[in-house]
Amino acid sequence: MIKAVIFDMDGVIIDSEGVYLQYQLEFAKKKNPNVKPEDLYPMVGATKQECWEVVERAVSNGQTWEELRTEFRRRDIYGEIDYRSIYRPEVTDTLKQLKHAGFRLALASSTHLELVERVLKENGIREYFEAVVSGEQFKKSKPDPEIYLYTVSQLQLKPEECLAVEDSTIGITAAHRAGLKIAAVIDTRYGFDQSLADYKLNQVKDVLEAVKGA
């Protein structure tokens, strides 16, 4: 029986992946005008090193992924983004209903903790999560299962008692390796493989039906 729902953040709570890709595409095209959006799709949900290895291959100008990442970081894109404008509005009511139904809630995101906390607070939903975990706390983040195993341990539950809400191939893989049930928010934009998911959600609020059948 499912006792807790563990949410990913990017692509689930906020529709941020396309916004980040736009900044990254703008940067990459300055290096190589022939870079296409689809060249960067493998960045979505990947670890930081894997992300910038994708850029390194796409740009192919002799710079290492470390050099490219350092240069990109000189611009504070996170300070430019209004996270309330890309928040999925159905999330608030979904969290309220899950809480009311007795489910415990947690968040497990690859994003650094400071930004995770900012997004949750700006959108008024921090209070719903009893555990908030960031990939920066571990040597390996998703698709490594450690972030999910740790989050489950923080809740003092078993993996099979938890449902992960994810979207990307990498996030789904991490939850699967950790032994959680998985509900995937359908997103056809980036070529995600969601075949390991137990449930498919057209919208985040559909998780309310998924937990009934889990």
TrEMBL record:
InterPro entries: HAD-like_hydrolase_sf (IPR050155), HAD-like_sf (IPR036412), HAD-SF_hydro_IA (IPR006439), HAD_2 (IPR041492), HAD_sf (IPR023214), PGP-like_dom2 (IPR023198). It comes from the Bacteria. It holds the Pfam family HAD_2. NCBIfam families: HAD-SF-IA-v1, HAD-SF-IA-v3. This is Haloacid dehalogenase. The lineage of its organism: Bacteria, Bacillati, Bacillota, Clostridia, Lachnospirales.
